[in-house]
């Protein structure tokens, strides 16, 4: 059982299945640039470290895998980013929560836990998505990828949330879906619990690196994995 005061939750791949809409926007961007479309599953493997990394990897997708993170031409990247943001703004709110998310958030809130959403997604996409999906009401705080100078895997977002909620980092848990979340939680000193269905660049989560794995969010309460630290 984890005794905590606050639970922080990743957005894409943990609360919301956003990959279909992201892949659609990416392929519209690529079409505008006269580049071939990418399979949705390939785009999904590039999700998790923010929009800039996603776009860079998609632009470099025809290169050797070791060069996915190479810096593309600056002018091309700027054009691609503008195109992607324009297309994604049109469908971002179409994404839906995973099964068990709303029930799980309700159960956590009913236990008296402080809840926060922490994501690498830009705020201009995060807030409308949370509102449209009905998840915004559950969170005392939302920290997006551009809210602070750095984002996950840097621990600054988690540390900022804990400070604002007046809890120690060791009194908080992060629920995520990727190595990015695991690295951030370890660096911040938080508990880390992961779901198996999200976006971890096509790799399974290494169970030895996390405190627990859950099938969906409701298990935190239904399996008595969490209690409120008074």
TrEMBL record:
Q: What is its EC number?
A: 3.1.3.18
Keywords from the named record: Carbohydrate metabolism, Hydrolase, Magnesium, Metal-binding
- What CDD domains is this protein classified in? HAD_PGPase
Q: What does the record give as the reaction this protein catalyses? A: 2-phosphoglycolate + H2O = glycolate + phosphate
Positions of the catalytic residues: 10 (nucleophile)
Q: Does the record's keyword annotation contain Metal-binding?
A: yes
Q: Could you tell me which pathway this protein works in?
A: Organic acid metabolism; glycolate biosynthesis; glycolate from 2-phosphoglycolate: step 1/1
The Swiss-Prot or TrEMBL record annotates one GO molecular function as: phosphoglycolate phosphatase activity
Cofactor(s) required, per the database record: Mg(2+)
Annotated binding of Mg(2+), by residue: 10, 12, 177
> Could you say which protein family the record assigns here?
Belongs to the HAD-like hydrolase superfamily. CbbY/CbbZ/Gph/YieH family.
Q: What is this protein called?
A: Phosphoglycolate phosphatase
This chain's source organism reads Methylotenera versatilis (strain 301)
């Amino acid at each position: 059982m984890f005794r905590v005061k606050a639970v922080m939750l990743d957005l894409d791949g943990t609360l919301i299945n956003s990959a279909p809409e992201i892949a659609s926007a990416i392929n519209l961007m690529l079409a505008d640039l006269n580049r071939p479309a990418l399979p949705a599953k390939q785009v999904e493997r590039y999700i998790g470290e923010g929009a800039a990394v996603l776009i860079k990897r998609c632009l470099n997708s025809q290169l050797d895998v070791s060069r996915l993170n190479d810096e593309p031409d600056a002018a091309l990247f700027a054009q691609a980013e503008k195109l992607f943001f324009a297309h994604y703004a049109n469908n971002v709110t179409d994404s839906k929560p995973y099964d068990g998310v709303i029930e799980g958030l309700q159960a956590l809130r009913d236990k008296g836990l402080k809840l926060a959403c922490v994501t690498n997604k830009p705020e201009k996409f995060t807030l409308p998505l949370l509102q449209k999906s009905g998840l915004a009401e559950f969170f005392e705080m939302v920290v997006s990828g551009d809210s602070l100078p750095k984002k996950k895997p840097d621990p600054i977002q988690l540390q900022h949330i804990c400070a604002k909620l007046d809890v120690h980092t060791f009194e908080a848990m992060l629920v995520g879906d990727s190595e990015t979340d695991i690295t951030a939680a370890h660096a911040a000193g938080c508990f880390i619990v992961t779901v198996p269905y999200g976006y971890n660049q096509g790799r399974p989560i290494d169970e030895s690196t996390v405190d627990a794995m859950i099938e969906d969010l409701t298990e935190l309460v239904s399996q008595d994995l969490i209690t409120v630290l008074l």
